[in-house]
Amino acid sequence: MNKKYIVRLSEEERQTLLAMISKGKAAAYKIRHANMLLKADADGPNWADEQIAEAFSANRNTVRNLRQRFVESGMNAGLNRRKRTSASKPKTLDGRQEARLIALRCSDPPMGCARWTLELLTDTLVELQVVEAISRETVRRTLKKMC
Predict the structure, then answer these.
(1) Which residues pair with 7 in a beta bridge?
(2) Count of alpha carbons within 13 angstroms of residue 23, beta-carbon side
(3) Which residues of 118-128 are buried (b: 16+ CB within 10 A; e: fewer)?
(4) At 96, which helix (H) or strand (E)?
(5) Nearest CA among 105, 92, 94, 91 for reference residue 144
(6) Which of 6, 12, 22, 98 has the greatest number of C-beta atoms within 10 Å?
(7) Are 9 and 44 in contact (CB under 8 A)?
(8) What percent of the chain has pLDDT over 70?
(9) pLDDT band for position 147 (50/70/90)?
């Protein structure tokens, strides 16, 4: 059974949320979250998650997560989006591998080539066993970032 998080707004919190909504100067998701918290207030309208979700065209889980963040971490956590704890995908090249790529790019191209191409760089990085596999786009983005 899911744990129910009861939102109880103090008068100060309620006034802060109402001021945020009436000014309309905050990000749209913050205003939406403020409206949801006001409707979820146990001392106010005390709407159910399903009602709030339907009224604001949100998923019921969004409302549940909003309630949980507010109860456990306070109003700032309830209004703001949750920060990522880590990158969505680990980087393909670490610092040492990026340095090898830059050094390779700055060196003279192989015999028979006028300059380094992305394909040539990717093939050479794999041949030198700097990485097992790498895409042209990763090489391009790394070079663009560094040069």
Answers:
(1) 41
(2) 11
(3) eebbbebbeee
(4) helix 95-106
(5) 105
(6) 98
(7) yes
(8) 97
(9) low
Q: 46 is written with which tokens?
A: 């005390």
Residue linked to tokens 């949750």: 82
Which two tokens mark 134? 């790498």
**Closest residue by Cα to residue 137 from 129, 145, 65:** 145
- The answer to whether 33 touches 79, Cβ cutoff 8 Å, is yes
Dihedral, 85, 87, 90, 92 alpha carbons, nearest 10? -150
HSE on the CB side for 142, CA within 13 Å?
Answer: 24
Check: CB of residue 126 under 8 Å from CB of residue 133: yes
Q: Is the dihedral of CA 9, 10, 14, 16 positive or negative?
A: negative
* β-strand partners of 41: 7
- Cross-strand bridge partners of residue 50: none
pLDDT digits (tens, 9 = 90+) for 103-117: 999 999 999 999 999
